[in-house]
Amino acid sequence: MSEEIKAARSQKARMLAGELYIAEDPELQQAARRACLLAKQYETLYYADLDAARAVLEQLLGAVGEGVHIKPPLLVDYGSAITIGAGTFINYGLVALDVAAITIGRDVQIGPNVQLLTPTHPINSALRRAKWEAAQPIVVKDNVWLGGGAIVLPGVTIGENSVVGAGAVVTKDVPANVVVAGNPARVLRAVD
C-alpha cells in the first residue's frame, strides 16, 4: 500500500488494521468516551436491574454470549472489539484494553483484577513522544481459567482448558491443557 493511501486512512482504520495510529484522534476519543459512559451505566444498573444491565453490556461489547456474567467495574478502551462466549464468568475489575480484538471463548472463568492488554508502543522514543501506538489481538479459548491479577500481553493466545495462575504475566502463547504461572508465565504441568 502506498504511503499516500496510508496517510489518507483514518486513525481508526489504521488502528483496526494493527498499524501505528494516534489514539488522541477525535473519532477515537469520542468512541472511548461512549465506552466509558456505557461501562458506568452497566455498573450502576448491575446492582439494580440485571436485565437492563445486560442490555447496556450488549451495546458496549461486540458480542456477548448467553449466560455471560460480568461483575463490575469493567474497564475497556472501546468495548466494540470484545467478544465473549456463552457461559463465561468475569469477576470484579476486568481491564480489557481492546485497541485490537479481544476474543474470550465459551465457559471461561476470569478472576478479579485481570488485565487483557492489546496496546503496544514503539521502542523508538520519537514515535512514542509523537503519541503513536499500535496493538495486537488477544485470544482466550474455551474453558480457560485466568486467576486473579493475571496479566495477558498483546498478541497472546491462551489454549483451551488451560489455567493461568494468579498474578501471572503471560508474555507468549499458552498451549491447550496446561497450567502456567509466574512472571513471565511458564508451563508448570499438563491438565488432565
Structural write-up:
With 192 residues, this protein is an alpha/beta fold. The protein has a single domain, classed as UDP N-Acetylglucosamine Acyltransferase, domain 1, CATH 2.160.10.10. It is built from five helices and 20 strands. It has helices spanning 3-8, 11-16, 26-46, 50-60, 125-129, and strands at residues 21-22, 63-64, 69-70, 74-76, 82-84, 89-90, 94-97, 102-104, 109-110, 115-117, 119-120, 132-135, 138-140, 145-146, 151-152, 157-158, 163-164, 169-170, 178-181, 186-190. A seven-stranded mixed beta sheet has the order 3-6-9-14-17-19-20, with no helix packed on it. Strands 2-5-8-13-16 form a five-stranded parallel beta sheet, with no helix packed on it. Strands 4-7-10-15-18 form a five-stranded parallel beta sheet. The longest helix is centred in the N-terminal third of the chain and has 21 residues, at 26-46. It starts with a helix and ends with a strand.
In which order are the strands of the major sheet placed?
3-6-9-14-17-19-20
Mean pLDDT: 95
Number of separate domains: 1
Q: Element order, helices and strands? A: HHEHHEEEEEEEEEEHEEEEEEEEE
Distance between the termini: 48 Å
Largest sheet: 7 strands, mixed
Number of helices: 5
For this structure, what is the CATH homologous superfamily?
A: Hexapeptide repeat proteins
Give the helix level as a range of percent. Answer: 25-40%
Secondary-structure class: alpha/beta
CATH structural fold name: UDP N-Acetylglucosamine Acyltransferase, domain 1
